[in-house]
Design a protein that fits this description.
The protein is of the alpha+beta class and 591 residues long. The chain is built from 20 helices and 19 strands. Strand 16, helix 15 and strand 17 form a beta-alpha-beta unit. Helix 13 crosses helix 16. It is globular and about 105 Å long.
């Protein structure tokens, strides 16, 4: 795995979306969807289940991704991208199959129709519906029951059963004016726009009645309909009815960089995402964006009909004139939502950009070299950094992070539970942690650090030196501290001889050391919180009669915290304890 791909995977978001694997020539070789992009993309490199996946992984050189709002959007986007790119390792969805829509026709006597063909009927289309949660066909049948539009393909001369069931206005025998049809169409539109409280309340009542009568299968169908309606309410911005080609441009600024993402919709389908990072030096963001877009579209062979972007009117007019494209700043509605999704993608692109990563590496190297020069140390290949976290004398813990060649190496991080219950000061706690760490390092013949950094001043430094002395390492490993001012902000490097070097808070070295201090503090605090939560968790379980130590440990192992245990049903808990104790657990947690 090359460094570019490694960094991108490390920073890919834990959000729903689609990922695109590319080969070394930049060609898309596979398109996939995921509820969690981070977890799914990493699975490819953790396990390979068959020859096809193995071959795919061998050809992966780069990855791109598009973040969406929900599963339905990711399914639809995956379908669009596979049809467009025809990746060699995708099999399904290449044959032109598409997800279903529900359409209300523009006929004189309108109908509600379930279709996969966007061109077959004239009318208003809702969808597409991709997620299994939307229970597409059941919802279609529900709409037929709720809204009394005609059901027959050809109008007959006599009323049918649907009229008697109040599911059709029967235009075959009744005179119905256009305003009545329009009213029903508006009601259907309201339904798809989320005005479903009364319908859901009715279905919920029916579900509870069926459950009370032990008709669980029918009750489950009602519940699925409720979930399907809720799924519909989560609007998708991947496909919409339009014959125009549309670009939606979003941006995200951090420090002196502007991350730009352009979503391209062809005939209403999202088929492409283009992205760029521009460097800005005290320039107005609008000016940078306008200049970029002028260059981007000036010689483009496939110009969109409309571009949506958040810019002042004067800039929009300038772009309209220069590019012959209609530029619009959306105020509300679908394109405002798409623009906001684009901002999320622009931010994720900035985070995962290798260019930015390389810049950070360069800054780190510069700061690292400056630290070596300042300390007079030629070799700083391994640094250990320590911090202590506690609340009075409860759940006292220590933490160590490590840097190899100036970069964090999380494989070398260590956690310590303070064993000395009489340790009442930072001195004694730090002393214990340092002693235990290097006693173990010497016993296992592991690499010793070239420098120890402690979070604190002379007290913590003396504690570290005292422990090193016990292991005969006080002349081997130098120790420094990072002290804070009265406002609890890092302000100086402290040496064992009490000499201090004030740090310039505008310097890259200060930011580098601050980052180190924040990382060790974060690691220590997270460990403290986890231990504190588990301690309270165990304490609460110990209060419940009938729970032994082994069972408590099993429950803690499987449920981690109160929230997860509280969600478990009595039936599920009865797999670990008898039904009587399971009920006691539920009662105790509900208190």
């Amino acid at each position: 795995m090359n460094r570019n791909l490694e960094y991108k995977l490390k920073n890919i978001p834990k959000l729903p979306g689609c990922y695109l694997w590319k080969d070394k020539y930049g060609k898309i070789i596979y398109v996939g969807k995921a509820k969690n992009l981070f977890n799914r993309t990493h699975q490819y490199f953790n396990t390979t289940t068959n020859n096809k996946t193995t071959k795919l992984v061998q050809n992966i050189w780069d990855v791109d991704f598009i973040v969406v709002k929900n599963e339905n959007e990711s399914l639809i986007l995956e379908n669009n991208l596979i049809k467009k790119h025809q990746p060699k390792y995708n099999i399904l969805l290449k044959d032109g199959n598409s997800y279903p829509y529900i359409v209300v026709t523009n006929e004189k006597y309108p109908r509600i129709i379930y279709t996969r063909d966007l061109k077959k009927y004239k009318g208003k289309y809702y969808g597409p519906f991709a997620s299994s949660k939307s229970n597409k066909y059941e919802l279609y049948n529900l709409l037929l029951k709720i809204f009394p539009l005609r059901k027959c393909n050809k109008l007959k001369n006599n009323k049918c059963l649907y009229y008697d069931m109040h599911q059709c206005l029967a235009p075959c025998v009744n005179t119905i004016n256009d305003s009545e049809w329009k009213k029903i169409k508006n009601q259907i539109n309201d339904f798809f726009n989320g005005n479903t409280k009364e319908i859901i309340a009715t279905l919920k009542k029916e579900e509870l009645e069926l459950s009370a009568n032990l008709e669980f299968e029918e009750a489950q169908k009602k519940l699925e309909l409720i979930n399907g309606i809720k799924e519909i309410q989560s609007h998708q911005n991947i496909v919409f009815n339009s014959k125009k080609n549309i670009d939606v441009i979003s941006f995200y600024q951090e420090n002196n960089h502007l991350s730009i993402v352009i979503f391209s919709y062809l005939n209403g389908k999202l088929l492409a995402k283009n992205q760029q990072i521009a460097e800005i030096n005290n320039e107005d963001i609008s000016d940078v964006l306008v200049n970029y877009l002028m260059q981007y579209y000036f010689d483009s062979l496939n110009k969109p009909d409309i571009c949506y972007v958040n810019l002042p009117n004067s800039d929009l007019k300038s772009l309209n004139k220069t590019t012959n494209i209609e530029f619009i700043s959306p105020v509300r509605g679908k394109f405002k939502q798409i623009l906001q999704e684009g901002v999320k993608n622009a931010k994720q692109f900035f985070t995962s950009s290798y260019l930015i990563y390389q810049q950070k590496i360069n800054l780190t190297k510069k700061s690292f070299d400056e630290l070596k020069y300042l300390l007079g140390l030629d070799n700083l290949s391994l640094i250990h950094v320590y911090d202590i976290a506690n609340l009075f004398t409860d759940n006292q813990v220590g933490a160590m992070i490590a840097l190899e060649d100036g970069v964090f190496n999380k494989n070398l991080y260590r956690k310590f539970i303070i064993k000395d219950l009489d340790a009442t000061s930072d001195f004694t706690r730090m002393q214990e942690v340092i002693f235990r760490q290097y006693k173990r390092v010497l016993e296992n013949k592991e690499q010793l650090p070239n420098l120890i950094i402690v979070d604190g001043g002379i007290i913590q430094i003396n504690a570290a030196i005292a422990s090193l002395k016990k292991n005969n390492l006080d002349k081997v490993i130098p120790v420094i501290g990072l002290s804070k001012d009265n406002h609890h902000r890092t302000n100086a490097i402290v040496f064992p001889n009490k000499k201090t070097i004030k740090l310039d808070k505008t310097s890259t070295l200060y930011m580098y050391l601050l980052n180190i201090q924040e990382e060790v503090h974060r690691y220590a605090i997270n460990f403290f919180r986890d231990k504190s939560i588990k301690s309270k968790f165990k304490s609460k379980l110990n209060e419940i009669e009938g729970l032994g130590e082994k069972t408590i440990n099993k429950l803690m192992e499987n449920y981690d915290n109160f929230a997860n245990l509280k969600k478990a049903s009595i039936e599920e808990l009865s797999q670990y304890v008898n039904i009587k104790v399971a009920k006691k657990i539920k009662e105790a947690l509900n208190e």
